[in-house]
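Onboarding guide, step 5: your first structure request.
Type a short instruction followed by the sequence, for example:

Predict the 3D structure of this protein.
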Amino acid sequence: KSLMVDARFEDSVEAPLFLGAEDQKDLIVIATILQDAVFTRAKSTFNRKKREFSLLLNRFRWEDVNAAKAEKRQFERVQSLLVFSDVISIKTLGLDLEDATTPLWLLTLQWTSGQDGSGIITLPLAGGSTIAITVEAISAQLRDMTRPYFAPSGLVPTHNI
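The system replies with structure tokens like these:
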């Protein structure tokens, strides 16, 4: 009787991402990695007691694009958890708060500094909507939660401006 065990992401050549951001430079790195991530409002949570805002996103694996092209294989996405800590408030513009299932495309993360390290992290979304997170300080974590899977479109995201 053979014992079949699924491979773990940790067993592959590339390990899952686990990144933190404590300043604007760190946030830029995470913003670059999350460009074109897709999520729904149903996959976002604001825990007022813990002062955390979380998003479960399906991010495009930008770090794998060149290898995928060279190996002539499909491009990949991976489900990742983005958590902001020290959150004071969340505001949205242009989002239908009753619609929890329509896909939302994250364009980037932007930082506007306030006083004493506080500020606003803005998440601009395709179509002109935004999520604004007021924080005491930049404190974010991005962690891959699943093994990569083939991007349903099979394409690298493009931006027709």
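Each response can be followed by summary notes, for example: The mean pLDDT is 90.
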